[in-house]
Automatic annotation (TrEMBL):
<keyword id="KW-0472">Membrane</keyword>
<keyword id="KW-1015">Disulfide bond</keyword>
<keyword id="KW-0449">Lipoprotein</keyword>
<feature type="disulfide bond">
    <location>
        <begin position="60"/>
        <end position="78"/>
    </location>
</feature>
<feature type="disulfide bond">
    <location>
        <begin position="94"/>
        <end position="106"/>
    </location>
</feature>
<feature type="signal peptide">
    <location>
        <begin position="1"/>
        <end position="22"/>
    </location>
</feature>
<keyword id="KW-0812">Transmembrane</keyword>
<dbReference type="InterPro" id="IPR023415">
    <property type="entry name" value="LDLR_class-A_CS"/>
</dbReference>
<feature type="disulfide bond">
    <location>
        <begin position="152"/>
        <end position="170"/>
    </location>
</feature>
<dbReference type="Pfam" id="PF00057">
    <property type="entry name" value="Ldl_recept_a"/>
</dbReference>
<dbReference type="InterPro" id="IPR050685">
    <property type="entry name" value="LDLR"/>
</dbReference>
<dbReference type="GO" id="GO:0005886">
    <property type="term" value="C:plasma membrane"/>
</dbReference>
<feature type="disulfide bond">
    <location>
        <begin position="193"/>
        <end position="211"/>
    </location>
</feature>
<dbReference type="GO" id="GO:0016192">
    <property type="term" value="P:vesicle-mediated transport"/>
</dbReference>
<keyword id="KW-0732">Signal</keyword>
<keyword id="KW-0675">Receptor</keyword>
<feature type="disulfide bond">
    <location>
        <begin position="186"/>
        <end position="198"/>
    </location>
</feature>
Length: 241
């Protein structure tokens, strides 16, 4: 059986990896975040799966149970390292906006070529790759300035990726309004600002406002969020003991 999930910034169809509750994952088909935004902003039918529907646990080869969210993420969580092997991860196709390590794991693109190894095999810091990657990033920024997927109220243009991303790219801020973003449904692994924009969860409660309305730094929310994060890390430490 296959189900649609949203991971990080894109949608993918999950049909291979066996979990403790009987679920399995294999061929994955991804859609870019821009395509996802076009669908949701145009009010087309898009089905999202809630976080509670995602398989809870993965059984390591040594019998240890870890959260299914921690497999093939570039970080070793099984004591026998079986959650980050080529055998396990090679069948995964990472979403468009996420980097695929040589052995198959998926990591956030913001971690690429930052001087710190985030893929177990170090493929995110490969020198020839990083040299070309920096050239490509420069070219992307040049293209973004030329694209006009969305015409701002002030007359300037922005690309689809810049709409409802927490940053006001239009001079008048019309790409980051509640009227523009309210119909956008964020994937479960992204945070939804109160007015509707989607931002990476790593930006939450970091002391810097990333949602235009500041909802990612709301004090009551952040207090509860830090408690939840602490609980997750305690679980990870317990799994490694």
């Amino acid at each position: 059986m296959c189900k649609m999930y949203f991971l990080l910034t894109a949608a993918f169809l999950v049909c291979k990896i066996t979990f403790s509750n009987g679920w399995s994952i294999s061929g994955l088909h991804s859609d870019s975040s821009a395509e996802f935004k076009r669908e949701t902003l145009n009010n087309q039918n898009t089905t999202t799966v809630q976080e509670e529907d995602i398989p809870d646990n993965y059984t390591c080869k040594n019998g240890e149970l870890i959260s299914a969210l921690f497999i093939c993420d570039g970080e070793i969580n099984c004591k026998d390292k079986s959650d980050e092997t080529h055998e396990l991860c090679s069948g995964i196709v990472c979403p468009f906006s996420v980097f695929r390590c040589t052995y198959g794991a998926c990591i956030y693109r913001y971690k690429l070529c930052d001087g710190k190894q985030d893929c177990i095999d170090g493929s995110d810091e490969d020198y020839p790759f990083c040299s070309q990657y920096r050239k490509n990033i420069s070219a992307i920024f040049r293209r973004k300035r030329q694209n006009c997927d969305f015409k701002c109220g002030s007359g300037d243009c922005v690309s689809m990726e810049q709409i409802c991303d927490g940053v006001a790219d239009c001079q008048d801020g019309s790409d980051e309004t509640k009227a523009q973003c309210d119909n956008l449904r964020c994937p479960p692994f992204l945070f939804r600002c109160t007015y509707g924009a989607c931002i990476y969860r790593y930006k939450l409660c970091d002391g810097k406002q990333d949602c235009i309305d500041g909802s990612d730094e709301d004090y009551p929310f952040c207090s509860e969020y830090r408690k939840n994060i602490s609980a997750i890390f305690r679980q990870k430490r317990h799994n490694c003991e």
